[in-house]
Structure formats: structure tokens, C-alpha cells
């Protein structure tokens, strides 16, 4: 879950990058390249120094080691790593390097390389932590997300398939023991739960239909989503608390697949510089819309799904 702390930071960094890319075209010079590299380097160093001091310093260290977490959380966390890698490369770094004056190819390779190193550094910090460990599956997921951003930019010169995020608040109030477990895992506040609760998070691959040659509005996308529910632990629903052992494996851990229409806000033509800033930020999130859900319980529909 540590990448979510970075995700929040990067969300605001993305807004800063997009704003500057749209409102300031004077940076595309040699000095601009130095400026962008200095800013990205400074953010890289300061972020990981702070993360190391504020997070990892509170846990026991160990020799560098790997930990196999590939089967945890029904791979929702891996989808999150893909999304984060895509987000950093496509939404943060690529616009920055284009702003600095690099052509599409160089900006793409720079964005892919720096995004991959950025996430790999987290695995290094994990690897020296006794509580966790570096994860090969995390590195693979990171690479898929970064690769999706870069491949599209190199092949099409645009992002036709967007990786998006959505979340809703899960109600655990029916069982006080489950509620206490959820609060321990995912936090107590609504905003914290929306970012941390794997049971309420869905990751989407949202394809623009018009870009693939279909006769449809330019802003219309079709999204495929992946989520899961019933998770009260990484591998299974058992835990201990205050000397008590709890076994809640009767709660089924279930994968969920979704199909839903979506919007590409950057394809909606609205005049004004403000919209050019807002639209790419909105594209980070899946637009609420009707959805079909397929799971082990069968097929069901949602009038509106977040």
C-alpha cells in the first residue's frame, strides 16, 4: 500500500505538470531541459529521503531480500502498480519532457526510464525492510504499466488506451469484528478508505472507440475493469488481534470484471485554457456510468458504478 502515498504526491505533481504544459510554452529551450531534469531529480531525491525517514525508519531493517507477494490481495495491488507506472510515465513525466522541448521519441524513452527507476527504488527500500521485501511481481507490474504508456506513445503518438481508477466506500458495519479489521487495514476516514480499501477499488483499461476507427463520438470510450471483494487479509481471511485468533474464511474472496462506457475528457471540445488543465486530470478517474459485472456469482448490472 506504500505506493498510494506516492500516488497522492504524484497527483498534484501531474496537475502542476499539465498546467505548465498548457499555460507556458517558453520553457522549450536548452535551459528548459536543465530545469525539468533538475525539478524531476530534486523530487526523486526528496521524495525517497522523506519516505525513508517518515515510513521505513519506523520498521526493522534487514539484508536485502525478496518476498513473493504475487498471490496477495487477488492481484488488485498489482493492478495498482500497473496504474501507478502508467500514471507516472504518461501523465507526469512525458508532458514534462515534451514541455522541455524533447521530441516524441526521446520524451517517451525518458519518461519510461525514469518512471521505471522511480518505482524500482521503492522495491529497493522494501528489500531492506524486514517487514516486506522486494517483489518480482511488483517489478513486472510496474514494467507493464510503463510499457503500455510508452508503446502507445511511440506507435500512435497518443494514449488511445487509458488506465483509470475508481473507488467506492464499502460498508462493513454489519459485523463489528469485520469493521475493526477493515479499519485496521484500510483506515477509518472515508477519504482514506477510498484510497486504501482494495475491496472498493477498480482499475480500468479505457479504450477510445473513435481512435480505433469506429464510428462514434470522439469522446466515447469503452472500459474494461478489474476489482475484487471479500478481502480481510493479503492471502486469506484469517488474522490475530489482542491475543485472539479470527477465521473469517467463510467470507468469499471474489474477483470482479466490469464492462462500462467511459469518457475521454481531452476529446471534449470546450474553449478556454482552464479546460485544457482540468481535462487530463479528470482522465485519471473512470467516469461513473452503467456497468455490467461478471464474477463467480454470475452476471449482474449496475445502473451507476464508480
Strand tally is 8
Number of helices in the DSSP assignment: 8
The span between the termini is 21 Å
What topology, given as strand order, has the largest sheet? 1-2-3-6-7-8
Fraction of residues in helices?
A: 40-55%
Largest sheet, in brief, is: 6 strands, antiparallel
Give the overall shape, derived from the CA principal axes: globular
Give the low-pLDDT segments.
none
How does the helix and strand content classify structurally?
alpha+beta
- Into how many domains do the coordinates divide? 2
β-sheet strand percentage: 15-25%
Q: Compute the average pLDDT.
A: 87
Order of helices and strands: HHHHHEHHEEEEEHEE
- CA-atom Rg in angstroms: 20 Å
Amino acid at each position: 500500500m506504500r505506493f498510494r502515498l506516492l500516488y497522492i504526491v504524484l497527483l498534484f505533481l501531474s496537475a502542476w505538470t499539465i498546467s505548465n504544459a498548457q499555460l507556458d510554452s517558453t520553457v522549450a529551450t536548452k535551459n528548459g531541459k536543465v530545469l525539468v531534469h533538475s525539478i524531476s531529480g530534486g523530487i526523486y531525491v526528496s521524495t525517497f529521503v522523506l519516505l525513508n525517514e517518515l515510513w521505513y525508519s519506523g520498521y526493522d531493517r534487514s539484508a536485502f531480500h525478496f518476498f513473493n507477494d504475487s498471490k496477495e490481495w487477488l492481484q488488485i495491488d498489482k493492478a495498482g502498480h500497473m496504474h501507478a507506472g502508467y500514471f507516472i510515465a504518461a501523465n507526469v513525466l512525458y508532458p514534462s519532457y515534451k514541455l522541455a522541448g524533447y521530441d516524441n521519441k526521446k520524451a517517451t524513452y525518458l519518461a519510461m526510464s525514469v518512471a521505471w527507476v522511480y518505482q524500482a527504488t521503492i522495491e529497493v527500500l522494501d528489500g531492506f525492510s524486514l517487514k516486506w521485501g522486494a517483489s518480482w511481481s511488483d517489478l513486472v507490474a510496474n514494467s507493464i504499466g510503463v510499457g503500455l504508456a510508452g508503446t502507445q506513445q511511440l506507435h500512435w503518438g497518443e494514449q488511445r488506451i487509458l488506465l483509470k481508477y475508481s473507488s467506492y466506500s464499502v460498508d462493513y458495519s454489519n459485523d463489528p469484528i469485520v469493521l475493526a479489521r477493515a479499519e485496521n487495514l484500510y483506515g477509518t476516514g472515508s477519504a482514506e478508505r477510498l484510497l486504501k480499501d482494495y475491496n472498493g477499488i477498480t482499475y480500468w483499461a479505457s479504450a477510445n472507440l473513435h481512435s480505433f476507427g469506429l464510428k462514434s463520438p470522439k469522446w466515447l470510450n469503452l472500459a474494461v475493469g478489474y476489482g475484487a471483494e471479500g478481502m480481510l487479509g493479503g492471502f486469506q481471511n484469517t488474522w490475530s488481534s489482542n491475543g485472539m485468533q479470527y477465521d473469517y474464511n467463510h467470507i468469499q474472496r471474489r474477483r470482479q470484471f466490469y464492462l462500462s462506457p467511459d469518457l475521454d475528457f481531452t476529446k471534449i471540445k470546450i474553449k478556454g485554457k482552464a479546460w485544457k488543465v482540468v481535462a487530463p486530470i479528470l482522465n485519471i478517474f473512470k467516469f461513473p456510468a452503467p456497468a455490467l459485472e461478471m464474477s463467480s456469482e454470475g452476471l449482474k448490472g449496475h445502473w451507476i458504478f464508480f
